[in-house]
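Checklist before submission:
- one chain only
- standard amino acids only
- sequence pasted in full

Submission:
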Amino acid sequence: MLLRKWRTNSKQLDLLWQQEGVETEFSETSATDLKPPIKVLGLAWDSEKDLIYFDPKDLLKFMSRKTESKRFILSVVGRIFDPIGILGPFVIKLKCLLQDLWTLGVDWDSELPPKLRHKWQQWSSEAEGLTEIKIPRFYLGDVDQELSSVDIHCFSDASKSAYGTILYLRFVTCNNKIETSFICSKSRVAPLKSLTLPRLELTAALLSARLAKQVSSCLKFNANIYYWTDSLISYYWIRGDSSAFKPYIKNRVQEIQSLSDPSQWGHCPGKDNPADLISRGTSAVKLAQNELWWHGPPWLKLTPDHWPNRHRDILDSELCSEELEYRSSVHVAVTQQRESRVDINRFSSLKKLLKVTAWVFRFVNNARIVNESMNFYITTDEIQNAEFFWLKYVQYKFYSAEILTLKRNEQLRCSYEIKSLVPYLGEDNLLRITGRLLEADLCFGEKHPVILPRHCKFTELLVIREHERIGHCGVSATLTQLRKNYWVPKGRQLVKTIIRICLICKKYNAKPADQLSDQLPRDRITQSPSFQIVGIDFTASEKELAYFANILKDSEFQNFVADKGIHWKFIVERAPWMLLNSTGKLREVRVDSMGITSHKKEPKITFSQ
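Returned file contents:
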C-alpha cells in the first residue's frame, strides 16, 4: 500500500514536508479553516495538542432519533468504540442497563419500564459530556529525560453489578521526578448467576492479571508489576494455597498464581482504588474531571515508603469460611484380594487343572500335618474337592454381590443377571437354581444345577470336558450334558463357541473339496453328423474281438454248439433298439436303418486311433 497523505504533531516536520511538496492530511485547507479530527485506530487525534479523545458527534446524531427500546440501546452500545477503556465507568452504566432489560425479559422493540427509561434518559443526557474526555497520546507526557525505573500498577474492584481493572504506568526520571499515566482499563458486567462479592472481587483480580500479562508482553522494556485490590478476602485467597478452597476459587487462584507472583499483590484502601469507578459507574463530566481515574491514587507519585502496607495479617473474622474446602482425614483399611495360586489361563484341559489344584492342596495338607502326610496318587475325593474349590472361587469372583445379598436375606436387584433364575445358597454355599423340577424323578444336580458365569475360563474348560465326554456331539447334546449339574446363562452361545473352535469337530464337519472339471474335448462340443466319431473300440479290445470272431468261425466250435443245442445270439439288454414283444421275447428294431447308416458312412476316427 502506498501512503499518500501524512500527518504529524511536529510543526518543524510539517513545515519541512510542505517545502518538499509532500502531500499532508490538510494540505488543501488553509490554516484558518476548521480542521476535522483525525482518526487513529478508531479514536480521534488532536495532532496539535497530541491528545486522543472519543468523538461523540456520530453517536449523538444517532441518539437523536429518540427511540427507546432494547434493540436501540444495544445499537448504541455497539457504536461506542473504546479499545483502551477510557470511557469505561460511563459505558458500564449502559451495559448494566442492557443487562437489566434482558433479566426482565423486555422484548426488543417494546417500551422500556419507567424506572429503566429514566436511567436511559439520564445516560443520554450525560453523553454530551464525552467531548471533554481527552488524554495524552504519549504515555510519558512531556518528560524528555532518561527514566530510571518503570512500574505498572494494576487496580481491580467489583460490585454486585460490574467489575473491572485499570492499569497505570509509573515512571521515575533521573531527577527523581515521578509521573503516572493512564494505560488502559477493562470492564465487565457481573454474570447473571448470582455470585458473592468476594468471588466477584477474585474474578476482577483475575481480569487484572490477564490484562497486565497482555500489556507487559507488548512493551519493549522490563517493568515491575504491582497488583492492588481492596478486598482482604480475595487478597488472602491469592496469597494462600489454592488446594484449600472449593473448585471455583481454586481454579481462579491457580490461574492468577500462574500469571503473577503472589508477592506482587497488595491491599489498598477502597477510597484509593480507581477501579471503584468501573464497578459503580459515573457520568461523563465527572469522569473527565476525576484525577483518580486518569492518574491513579496520589501516593503513586510518592516513594514506596508512602504506599499502603501491602502485606498485612488476616483476621479470622475477615475470612470467608464457607469457601474453604474442609477435608476430613479417613483411615482406610485396604484388604488385598487373594488370587488363586494356580493360573487357570495356562490350562487347556479341566482334568489337568483339577489335578494340579489337588496336588497343591495335598502339599498344603502335608505341610500342616506331617505325621498323616499322603504320598500316593491323587484320589477321586481330592479331584472332587479341587472342583468344588474352583466352583466356589468362580462364583465369589463373579457373583459376590448376589451372594452377600442372599446371605442378608434380601431381594436381588433387577440389574443382576441371574435374578430371573431365582437363585439360592445351598448347603454347600454354592449358588443354585431353585427351578420347578422339585417333584421330578431326577438327581439333585439336575433339579438344582450350580450357576456358573459365561465369560469365565473355568466354565469354558467345563464345557470342553462335557463335550468330549459325549464323543464330540452337537450343540444340543453338549448343552443337555452340561445342564445335568451346571447352569450357564446364555449357555447355548458358549457351547456354540466351544464347538466351533474344537479341532476334532472341525475335521469331521469339514466340507469335502470340490474338484474342478477339466475342459471338454473339441470333438464333444463341435457339431458333426451322427457316428462320425464312435467309441466301439474304447477299451482297445480289437485283438480279443478278432480272437472270438475266429473261434465262432471254427468248425469244431460250430459242431460243439450244434451238438449241445446252443443257439447263439448277440443281444444287449435294455438297448434302445431292443423291445419286448407280445410273446415275451426281445426283438430288434431299427436294425435295418442302422445297418444302412453304418454301410453308408464309415467313422472318420475311433478312440483307439
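Reviewer check: The two ends are 100 Å apart (CA to CA).
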